[in-house]
Amino acid sequence: MGKKQDSRFDEKQIDEWLKGHQPEDVKSLLQEITKAVLERALQGEMTEHLGYAKNDIAEKNTDNARNGSSAKSLKGEFGEIELETPRDRKGEFEPRLIKKHQTRFTGFDEKVLSLYARGMTTREIQGHLEEMYGVEVSPALISDITDGVMEQAKAWQSRPLDAFYPVIFLDALFVKMRHEGRVENRAVFVALGINLEGQKEVLGLWTGAGEGARFWLGVLTELRNRGVKDIYVVCVDGLRGFPQAIENVFPKAQVQLCIVHLIRNSLNYVTWKDLRNAATDLKPIYRATTAEQAELELGEFEKKWSKYPAIGKLWREHWQQVIPFFAMPAELRKVVYTTNAVESLHRSLRKAIKTRGAFPSEEAAIKLIYLTIAKVAGQWHTVQNWKPALN
Fold first, then answer.
1. DSSP structure class, residue 325
2. 354-375: b (≥16 Cβ within 10 Å) or e
């Protein structure tokens, strides 16, 4: 065992602090310690700024001087404390630890943003901070903190992108938000790319009245303008006109219909009692080794489930966007077989927004979704089996 390190605090100092305090007063005690340490640090900054310690006139080599102090309320995880911030006569002192006009201590904003990204409403965050830290925070302050994120979101939305993405998933989820005075179900469009290193990256967010090929054409054009020159595979849902929109902007891209979307849409036609068996009988189609075998399996499915003719029709209508899948090696199929990557992202987004009845604006929705993406993206890992798929 190594030698035990000495405490950074003198035990006699701690005993002095504890005098007159009960165990349940620890929070109050921590506030006092925080106040004392911060004020001590601020006085140290003033000494550094002026070049001489307080009352040490012999070392004074400036016509500037201390000029009392001003009161400042500072909020943080320790609660709210009143600080005495030193001033200089010329008003030139710029403290670094607690800056002028700063009312929140480092970490406080991050705490608010973390709670917001978890889907908590402004009122819930207000109650949580008061309950946990004894800090009374106005809804306006919480809005100010979260509004500051929009500048980051705008910069993120316009950032340059890679020239080439092996795979990009395009999808949308619907969110209730107020638009032009009324609450509407509006689409939030998401583009999720997998780069050459096998890392997932949300390329952007867009909102619109509905999921349409014309809107996606604008999204794809924006991606091109931000630096994307080519895409190998674009995975999409069954939107009519979508492949044409992709081909107009990225003519070399291979369009692959999301198999999971197709399965889900197929099962919408099936009664509850047939659901499990129909889902099982669809598997031989998309697990076939070739497009020819898949078409034979589709024919067998149509014969067995003739009471659901709409399913066979659905697959045949989209067959040209289904069959590229069968020309891919098994490793790449595992990556593009489904929009699992974007679906898992959507689950996180839905979890964050489910507590909201409706967003007051598109900006409010984008703000929460951006924060949620930033939180989720930090937990992403390289796509499994990426190297074989890339080869």
1. G
2. eebeebeebebbbbbbbbbbbb
Backbone φ, ψ for residue 288 (5° rounding): -65, 155
Tell me how far apart the alpha carbons of residues 365 and 119 are, in angstroms, rounded to a whole number: 11
pLDDT (tens digit, 0 to 9) for every residue of the chain, 391 residues total? 444 444 455 566 666 666 666 655 555 666 676 677 677 767 877 888 888 787 777 667 788 888 888 888 776 655 677 888 888 888 888 877 677 776 666 566 666 666 666 666 777 777 766 665 566 666 776 776 666 677 888 888 999 999 999 888 888 888 888 877 888 888 888 889 989 988 889 999 888 766 667 788 888 999 999 999 999 888 887 666 677 788 889 999 988 888 877 888 899 999 999 999 999 999 999 888 899 999 999 999 999 999 999 999 999 988 888 888 888 777 777 776 654 566 678 788 888 777 677 778 888 888 888 888 888 887 787 777 777 777 7
